[in-house]
Amino acid sequence: MNDQILSDENCDTLNELFNIGMGRAAKSLSEMVNEEVLLSVPSLQALSYQGALKLFDGIADEPINAVEQYFDGQFNGNAMLFYTQRSSQELVRRIIGDLAPNENFGEMEQEALKEVSNIILNACFGCLAEVLNCELQSGVPSIANGDVSSIFRKQRDNLGEAPLVLSLSMTFSLPNKSIEGQVSLIMTSESIKKLVRELERFSSLYAM
Amino acid sequence: MNKSIMTLEKVIFNATNQGLMIVDKNFTVIDINQWLIDAIDNNKAHLVGRSIFDLFSFERPQFLRSTIKQAFECGLSSFLSSALHPRLFPLLSRYQSGDRYMEQSCYIKRIFFNDETYCLIQILDVTSNVMRERLLNKTSNDLSLFKIAIEHSASSIVIADNDGQIQYVNPRFVEIAGFTSEDAIGHSYFSLSSQAHEQQFEATVKSALHFHDSWKGERSFVTKSGDKYWVNEHIYQARNANNEPTHLVAIQDDLTQIRDIARKASYQASHDSLTGLVNRDEFDKILIQEITRCDGNANHVLCFLDIDQFKVVNDTSGHGAGDELLRQIANLFDEYYPNDKVLARLGGDEFAVILHDSTFEQAQKISEALIQQVQAFRFRWDDSVFTVGMSVGLTLITAQTVSSVEAIKQAENACDVAKDMGRNRVYIYQDDDDTITQRQGDTYWANKINDALENDRFLLYAQPIVPLLDDSKSSFEVLVRMDGYDGHIIPPGLFLPAGERYNLSHHIDRWVINNTVAWLVKHRNEVAHIDHISINLSGLTLSNDSFLAHIVKVIKDNDIEASKISFEITETAAIANITQAKHFISVLRKLGCLFALDDFGSGLSSFAYLKNLKVDRLKIDGMFVKDITVDAIDEAMVKSINDIGHVMGMKTIAEFVEDDAIKMRLIELGIDYGQGYGLGKPVPIDRILSHSTEIV
Predict the structure, then answer these.
(1) From first to last of its 208 residues, what are the pLDDT tens digits of chain A?
(2) Whole-angstrom Cα distance, residue B17 to residue B101?
(3) What is the Cα B628 distance to its own chain's centre?
(4) Looking at chain B, which residue has its C-alpha nearest residue A120?
(5) Are B603 and B570 spatial neighbours (Cβ–Cβ below 8 Å)?
(6) Which residues of B fall below an 8 Å CB-CB distance to A?
(7) A107 Cβ under 8 Å from any chain B Cβ
(8) A162 touches chain B (CB under 8 A)
(9) pLDDT, tens digit, for every residue of B281-337?
(10) Is A106 on the interface with B (CB under 8 A)?
(11) CA distance B80 to chain A (A)
């Protein structure tokens, strides 16, 4: 799938774009929490829906917290950022500054997670739109808890035949601590084709 | 859009339970809903047309500005959480009384209307959620702390429902009771007890809980494996907000250890740590009880036991040996007496025993048999073998016994008399006993001795020491007696021990030497048939330098043939004062006097000492001799002492030769001399002169 839809070159370009977006998100998060936050996207994969399910099952065999946000414009889909429950607790605790060993993951923590994820996803969307010079808007974020495949399956229904998934592993680096998250953009194959067109247009601009 | 829908949307806009505000690119308020107007506490006319940055003083206006700009320019919707932006809009909460600021969650998104782009700011009041959340966090933090405290508590904690069905047990309970949570949960708390009347107890506890909300007590439980354990238990009634009883909370503190310690402490307080026997305090208490319990019929006998020779063991082989001797003797006593006896170590080498429902006759028999056992007992320590003896005093415990102290004193006095009478015997206390009455002054014999010394009331007796193997001359051992005024002669067993106790023995020794020498001088011509005269010296005399000089002087001044005089010192006295003894012996032997080691084998048969003590004769302790015809061990002892003595160039003398059979046996064994009733009783010394007819 990777070979057919996204060339290595396109993958590299996208990876680079997301890295720029992450850099921006890290900047605003650092300002917000008064602590240096680094975000990086070590790898990007384009997968079939089934392939993505398989991958995610391997990544998280425990319940997850996922923040979803749809995006719409020249291409559209659903973006999802998810963490294992332990990672999300760790992340939120560090960001809110609550160090108490509380096993609750309450409403306030969920909202904080939602906002942090919103910042990251928006930064990525913003970067894509800006660099590719295309129209891209996003909806408000919402949160879902449960096991990764059931959350992921809910998305499936609206995505027509052979949806594709762009999957990025993401690492938050806080002082003394790294927390893993997983970003995935789920798009119809049609949308992916549009994205590829935009990427190629962008590449051709700079290839000259 | 038509007008009617417009109106409906407007109605909804104002009726919704959240703040809605529409701003344009310049952050100017275009519209604002009633909820937010109320929250701002102002009127609409004042708000519309003004920039939100004029209307509100934000903590971080720049952040909001860029978020709104991002919505306008890129169409990206944002969410601002109460956690990261506490009280973003400075508004007062309508759900809380007082001036409480509103905690908010805000959504910011781009909207289009009439070809214009606007931004919708949605404000949700989450104050109560935040407060609930905080309360929940606090409660849950508290609970985790309480949980930690309960799970690490040194007390067992059990929570049960109101019927006693267990709902929770802490790890300490699991540890002590051996039941896991799974074992315990669902079972009745009251069924864990080892108490017989479980239901009755449950009723008692429930009634206490009903009236006082708590019950406290000590109870025993059984572990899963069936072991019993004791706890200090505290059961509380837990009640809900309506004061209805909901749960029982039981806290148990394990008492097993404390009980063990208490038991140990009380054991230690009442027992002698060396022998494990009852100690003096405890014996006293028991005796008091026995006296109180005495009725007219039942009498008990109190025996006071004193070990002879204990001091010798202690002095020659150290306290370790002394302690071990006491342990072994205590063991011997413990096995000897019947099970219902009360046996105590009163201190030092003194023991006491109460024989229940016993008469003097029975007690005397029992005691005499025990003395024989003690005498037959051999204590081995390193290379040494010791024999010991025992004196016993008896007194009756009846309803008339005045006090425990008095009873012990009576038995002790009787024991002292037994000792004075020559040890290894039993003496019975009698209320009107003169011996004891007089003894009770305790200085009685000391006074008697002083009186005898001053008034020259000691008498010299002599007993022959007869050669067994040839026809050579006999010698005689000089013995001392006291003239009892009323005509009877007091045996040395009565006054010599007191003499030792009151440091008078060397005075007696001096008297004996002076008078013996005088006797020899006086009868110079009548003693040719006597090989030599043997004089006993006490241990105290040995260590007295001026005494040695005195002996030398007396012999020289009187021009006595030194070889006519022999000195006997006991093995124990010699060893206890080994350095002085060696000096004493060497000085007098140089002069020509003879030396004999008395009672050899009685205290300790340390043959090694023999090498250091240059003596001429060994007197084998009569204990080995008297049963020589029936006891193979005694015979072997006598034989080996004889052999050793001969190897070292000493002559051997057997004491206690009571009959011909013994004499014959001794001859067979090759013993050089014999002494005893079978060969000649002690007689007043004048009767051994050559003209006397009474020589054996």
Answers:
(1) 444 567 888 888 888 888 888 888 888 888 877 778 888 887 788 888 888 888 888 777 788 899 999 998 888 888 999 888 888 888 888 877 765 555 667 888 889 999 999 999 998 888 888 888 888 889 999 999 888 888 887 777 667 777 888 888 888 888 778 888 888 888 888 888 888 888 888 878 765 4
(2) 17
(3) 44
(4) B78
(5) yes
(6) 63, 70, 74-84, 105, 107, 109-110, 126, 129-130, 133, 136-137, 140-141, 144
(7) yes
(8) no
(9) 889 989 888 888 887 776 889 999 999 878 778 777 888 888 999 999 999 998 888
(10) yes
(11) 6
Q: Does A76 touch chain B (CB under 8 A)?
A: no
CA distance B696 to B688: 9
Q: Does A133 contact B at CB distance below 8 Å?
A: no
What sign results for the dihedral spanned by CA atoms B211, B214, B219, B224?
positive
Q: Please report, as a single letter, which amino acid is at residue B377.
A: F
Rounded average pLDDT over B212-237: 88
DSSP notation for A53-80:
HHHHHHH--S-EEEEEEEEEESS-EEEE
C-alpha to C-alpha distance for B428 and B80, rounded to whole angstroms: 107
Q: Quote the pTM value.
A: 0.51
State ipTM: 0.88
The answer to whether residues A101 and B144 touch, using CB atoms and an 8 Å cutoff, is yes
Both tokens of B486, joined, read: 């009323």
Asked if residues B103 and A112 have their Cβ atoms less than 8 Å apart, the reply is: no
Among candidate residues B471, B565, B469, the one with its CA nearest the CA of residue B516: B565
Q: Is A34 on the interface with B (CB under 8 A)?
A: no
Domains of chain A, by residue range, sit at 2-203
Q: Of A100, A101, A112, which has the smallest distance from its Cβ to B84's Cβ? A: A112
Mutate to test the interface with B, among A78, A81, A107, A133 (most CBs of B within 10 A): A107
CA distance A152 to chain B (A): 22
pLDDT of residue B1 exceeding 50? no
- Least CB-CB distance to B137: which of A106, A118, A122? A106
Residue B310: count of CB within 10 angstroms of its CB: 21
Of A104, A114, A138, the CB nearest to B81: A114
Distance CA B57, CA B51 (A): 11
* Interface check A35 vs B, CB under 8 A: no
3-state secondary structure of B92: strand
Which two tokens mark B250?
């039981």
The contacts found for B506-509 with CB under 8 angstroms, 24 or more apart, are B506/B538, B506/B540, B506/B541, B506/B544, B506/B547, B507/B449, B507/B453, B508/B449, B508/B453, B508/B458, B508/B480, B508/B538, B509/B535, B509/B536, B509/B537, B509/B538, B509/B541, B509/B547
Which tens digit of pLDDT belongs to each residue from B275-284?
989 999 889 9
CA nearest to B401, candidates B524, B261, B251, B294: B294
pLDDT at B605 over 70: no
Contact B70 A102 (CB under 8 A): no
AA letter at B212:
H
Q: Which fold has domain A2-203?
A: Chemotaxis protein chec (3.40.1550)
- B358 CB burial (10 A radius; 0-12, 13-18, 19+): buried
Residue written as token pair 């959504």: B107
- B129–A138: do the CB atoms touch at under 8 Å? no
Instruction: Using alpha carbons only, give the angle B214, B215, B221 rounded to the nearest 5 degrees.
Output: 135
Q: Give the distance from residue B74's alpha carbon to the nearest chain A alpha carbon, in angstroms.
A: 6
Q: State which residue of chain B sits closest to A95, comparing Cα positions.
A: B84
Q: How far is B136 from chain A (nearest CA, A)?
A: 9
Alpha-carbon distance A195 to A165, whole Å?
A: 12
Q: Residue B284 is encoded by which pair of tokens?
A: 């006293």
Q: Are strands B350-355 and A38-48 parallel, antiparallel or unpaired?
A: unpaired
> Does B81 contact A112 at a Cβ distance shorter than 8 Å?
yes
CA distance B98 to B95: 10
